[in-house]
Design goal:
- The protein is of the alpha+beta class.
- It is built from 14 helices and 7 strands.
- Helices cover 43% and strands 14% of the residues.
- The chain is elongated and about 75 Å long.
- The chain has 2 domains: 3-213, Hypothetical protein, domain 2 (Endonuclease III, domain 1, Orthogonal Bundle); 224-352, Nucleoside Triphosphate Pyrophosphohydrolase, CATH 3.90.79.10.
- A hairpin with a 3-residue loop joins β5 and β6.
- The strands form 2 sheets. The chain has a 4-stranded mixed β-sheet with strand order 4-1-6-5, covered by helices on one side. Strands 3-2-7 form a 3-stranded antiparallel β-sheet, with no helix packed on it.
- The protein has helices at 3-15, 27-37, 42-55, 59-64, 67-74, 81-96, 103-107, 114-125, 134-144, 153-166, 172-186, 204-208, 269-280, 338-348, and strands spanning 224-234, 238-243, 254-255, 257-261, 287-298, 302-312, 324-327.
- α2 packs antiparallel against α8 and α8 packs across α11 (172-186).
């Protein structure tokens, strides 16, 4: 075993995190844990993992569930394509008879990339596949002084090759967990603890004063602004929601009446009311009132600028095209985005109820 791997594993045995995937060889549990912890803090993801595993303890239970229920259990975690992919992969595995035991078959699962396949196969089956995530990029780029951009094709190939060469082939599970935890806790993005780092005597970035500039990224993500006007339509004890479809954010989650505009209309109520008339036609409304305006919701590639409204329609109002009529007390059954959940919590609190 190399000195590099030896020091990482020694550090890990004293400092490892308490993660859901630890102390198990069950590929299903490891898979669920890995998918949940993508883009999710450990403290938040752990509770979701416990609830998810209690309801869906194996791949067959998950495969048999309705997608709406799976999405509801995922509500609040964000990046909802993860839940859709989990469900689709579970159904394909159930048809095949269970969780695959070959790396290429694990990699072929929907929503599983090279990192997740390597994690599952090394943790569950002790296969010698090196994981390469953000933490690993950071540790390797600093320790070896590699300035190849981690988001370039050349850089990704280089880091994958280096990671595979350095890993301890005899103990792939503990090595992979060690290097990831080392990046998460010791070799952190900002203010890494270099003074007490077991690799400080051999770290090229530290020797060359490049810790703050490695790893290197070449591309900056373009962020777009979108303007959402959500309207809670109240008609007696009912309201209207729809399921989002198409290749857009929050696919297959539910939302109230939405009017998306090119600009913020919070200061131009006349224009907004005209757009509402275009949707409702000549339906008379009792009143329209703002609930909250100027809500900023930041996603990875988009910033949603939202305004929340409440609209009261006659109790005998029948249908709203494209939306389903549901009782207010049944709203909790539907999976919604964090933004819509925030809106519903405002509109349904006792002091916001229409008497």
């Amino acid at each position: 075993m190399s000195e590099f791997a030896d020091k990482l594993i020694g550090w890990y045995e004293e400092n490892k995190r308490d993660l859901p995937r630890r102390d198990t060889k069950d590929p299903y549990r490891i898979w669920i844990s890995e998918i949940i912890l993508q883009q999710t803090r450990v403290a938040q993801g752990y509770d979701y993992f416990v609830r998810f595993m209690k309801r869906f303890p194996d791949v067959f239970t998950l495969a048999e569930a309705e997608e709406d229920e799976v999405m509801k259990y995922w509500q609040g975690l964000g990046y909802y394509s993860r839940a859709r992919n989990l469900h689709a992969a579970a159904r394909s595995m159930a048809e095949a008879g269970g969780f695959p035991v070959v790396y290429q078959n694990v990699l072929a699962l929907k929503g599983v990339g090279e990192y997740t396949a390597a994690a599952i196969c090394s943790f569950a089956y002790d296969m010698p596949y090196a994981v390469v995530d953000g933490n690993v990029y950071r540790v390797l780029s600093r320790w070896m002084g590699i300035d190849a951009p981690i988001d370039s094709t050349q850089g990704k190939k280089l880091f994958a090759q280096v990671a595979q060469e350095l890993m301890d082939k005899k103990r792939p599970a503990i090595y992979n967990q060690a290097i990831m935890d080392f990046g998460a806790l010791q070799c952190t993005p900002s203010s890494p603890n270099c003074l007490f780092c077991p690799l400080s005597d051999s770290c090229l970035a530290l020797a060359q004063g490049k810790v703050d500039i490695l790893p290197v990224k070449q591309h900056k993500t373009k962020v777009t602004n979108r303007f959402f006007n959500y309207i809670y339509v109240r008609t007696g004890g009912y309201t209207f929601i729809r399921k989002r479809t198409g290749n857009d954010i929050w696919k297959n989650l539910y939302e109230p009446l939405l009017i998306e505009t090119d600009t913020d209309l919070s200061e131009n109520i006349e224009v907004f009311e005209q757009k509402l008339l275009d949707v409702l036609g000549k339906t008379p409304w009792h009143f329209l009132k703002p609930v909250k305006q100027g809500v900023k919701h930041v996603l990875s590639h988009r910033i949603i600028h939202a305004n929340f409204y409440e609209l009261v329609l006659p109790e005998d109002f029948g249908a709203l095209e494209g939306y389903q009529r549901v009782a207010e007390e049944d709203l909790y059954k539907f999976a919604v985005s964090n933004l819509v959940s925030q809106f519903f919590s405002l509109i349904l609190e006792p002091n916001n109820q229409i008497m």
